[in-house]
Description:
The protein is an alpha+beta fold.
Amino acid sequence: MLHLTDIQLQDNKVFLSMLSHVLSVDGFYFSTTYDLTHTLQRLANTSPEFQEMSLLERADPRFVWNGHLLREFAAQPEIHRFATPVMHGFITMHSCSINGKCFDWLLVSRRSCFRAGVRYYVRGIDSEGHAANFVETEQIVHYKGSKASFVQTRGSIPFFWSQRPNLKYKPKPQISKSVNHMDGFQRHFDSQIISYGKQMIVNLVNQKGSEKPLEQTFAKMVNSMANVMVRYVAFDFHKECSRMRWDRLQILMDQLAEQQDEFSYFLVDSDGKIVTQQEGIFRSNCMDCLDRTNVIQSLLARRSLQAQLQRLGVLHVGQRIEEQADFEKIYKNAWADNANACAKQYAGTGALKTDYTRTGKRTQWGLIMDGWNSLIRYYKNNFSDGFRQDAIDLFLGNYSVDEVEPASPLHVKKDWKFLALPIIMVVAFSMCIICLLMAGKSLSFISQNQLACVQTFCKRLPDTIQYKIAFQSFLKVCKCGSGDWGLALYHYYGKNLSYYRKQC
C-alpha cells in the first residue's frame, strides 16, 4: 500500500467497497464435506476417481463464485485442501412429517457465475452460449436412506438481446441485428443437453407488446435448430392469469404433464442403487426469469414431489400434498423465499407474486407489495445497478485492476445531466406528493365557497323548483370536477349570471 499514489489509494477504497457490496448480498454457501455445486444425479453417475478429487477440482465451474479468487490455489494441487468453493443462490432444509413418517426436504438454487450481473445490464447470452441469470434449482427428499431429486433450470432468453435502462419504467427490448444468433443459441442448448438431457422450454413472456418479438424469435430459432432433444411451449402468463384468474395455470400444467412423466425424477434407494433417472428438464423463462418463472417452477416441483412421496410410501394412495396443511405451509414459504433470494440477487428487490406462492391465491396486499417492489426496482435499475454490475465484474475477475494503468475507469467524468438527474427526479416526485396532499384541502375549500355562493344565488330565485334544478346541476358539475359553479347555473340563467356572480 505504501507505493500507491493518493489517487490509487482512493481507487482502492472504492474497489474494496465493491467487493464488500457483493459479499453483503445474502446467499453465499459452502461446505467442507459435501459438493454443493453438483446435483444428486450428477454425483451418483461419477467415477471413483472423481470421488477422490478435492472439492475444488471436482466442482462445477458454473457455480463456483470464488473461482477467480482461488485461481492461484487451483494451480497448486498440494494446497487444494485449503480451497473451498463458494456457491451463490439459495438453500433451505426442513425436517417434515406426513402420516407420522419423517423425512428431510431441501430446496437448492445454484446461480451461474458465467454472464452474471444485474437485471437490465445483463440479458440474453454471450458468445459462449452462457445465459444471463441462469439458475439450477434442485428439490431433494431424504427418507430412510433413499434419496430423490427433481431438477429445473431458468435462464434469460438465449440469443443476443438487450434492455438497457433509459428512465422508462419498462425499456423496450432490442434484438441485436449484427450477430449470428444461431451460433450462441446452438452452443447454449448443446451444453444444456450434455448436462441435463432433453430440454422442455417453457416461455412465459407476453405474446403482445414489446415482449412479442422475443417470443416470436425464440420460437423461430427452436424450429430452425430442429433438434429433437429440444421442445418449446409458449404460455402468455399475464394474459392467461389476468383479472386474478390464477386457476388458469392448470392449463399449462396439464399441457406439460405428459412431458414431465416422461422426464421422471432421480431416485436412489437406501442401498445406493439407482432406481430412476431424470431424463430431461424444464427450462423456464420470462423476461427476468424471476417472478413468473418461480410460480411455474413451484407448481412443477410440487407435481414431482407428489409422485416421489407416494413412491417412497410417505403419502398414501389418493392423498395429495395440498391436503397436508403443515407441510403445505413449509413448501409454499420455502418456494417464496427462493423467489425472494433470486430476485434480490438479480433485480435488487424481493420477488413479485410471492403472495400466490405462499398462499395459493392472489391478494390485494400482494398487489400493493408488488407495486412497492416495482418502484424500488425502477430506482435501482436506473440509478444504482451500474455500481452493482461493476462490483460483480470485479469480484468475478471480469475486470482486473492494473496497477500501472494510467487512468482508472473510476475517474471517467460524468455529464452534469447524469449527476443532476437523480436530484431532479427526487424533487419532481416530492412536488407530486405535495400536490396530491394539498389537492384535497384545496378542493374542499373551493367546494364550500361554491356551495355558499350557489345557496346565496338560489335564494334570489323566484321559486323552489328552479332552486332544486340549479342545485342539482351544481352537484353534478362538482362531482365531475369542473370546479366552476357558475357553469352549472349558466345553462338555466345565462343572462343573469354575471349579476349573481358579483353578488356572491
